[in-house]
Amino acid sequence: MIVFIRWGGLCAQILMFAHAEASYFDAPESSNSSESCPLPMDIENKDGVFMSAAKRTGVAWVGVVVGAAVEEVIRFNKAIFVLTNSAIDSEGFISGCVYSLSGGRFLSLRLASVDGREHVMSVGAFPSWRVSLDYYSPAILECNDQFRDACSVILK
């Protein structure tokens, strides 16, 4: 009898793990619908205006640092996401992707639309987003993983 209870417990754990793994890595079906903070080497500086192409047409990553005409982006620090509706698929917006510059200052890139409209975003089930320890609000998430596409969001 004890063998059956242990066997049942083991099977339940395996099934729960398999279900959790499937939802943990639930990425969007269309790769065009996701965006992530660009790599430092993909960011161009033109007289203090920092830009990087986005995956989706009609949007780009943009940031400005006054007096940083010759500085280079050297390191990604973190991305900050503000939840506006956590009940619906963790909707909100990226407040910024924060980078270190060669002169010791910081750069914050935002996702800007060519037509000026704001995009509804979601962190979905991307595992790199966690509640920020730098802010006193569960509505502010951060991602500081360094690998490509770690800090992804879904554009809706």
Structure description:
With 156 residues, the chain is mostly beta strands. Strands 1, 2, 3, 4, 5, 6, 7, 8, 9, 10 and 11 form an eleven-stranded antiparallel beta sheet that branches. The protein starts with a helix and ends with a strand. The protein has one helix at residues 2-24, and strands at residues 34-36, 44-46, 49-53, 59-64, 73-85, 91-101, 106-113, 121-122, 130-131, 140-143, 152-155. It has one domain. The model is unreliable at 1-32 (pLDDT under 50). The chain contains one helix and eleven strands, in the order αβββββββββββ.
Low-confidence stretches: 1-32
- Mean pLDDT across the residues is 80
Instruction: Report the portion of residues in β strands.
Output: 35-45%
Secondary structure: helix percent = 10-25%
Question: Which assembly state applies to the chains in this document?
Answer: single chain
Structural class: mainly beta
Rg over CA atoms, rounded to whole Å, is 19 Å
The description of the largest β-sheet is: 11 strands, antiparallel
Query: Terminal Cα separation, in Å?
Result: 52 Å
Shape: globular
Count of domains: 1
Keywords: Signal
Organism: Pseudomonas lactis
Protein name: DUF3757 domain-containing protein
Signal peptide: 1-22
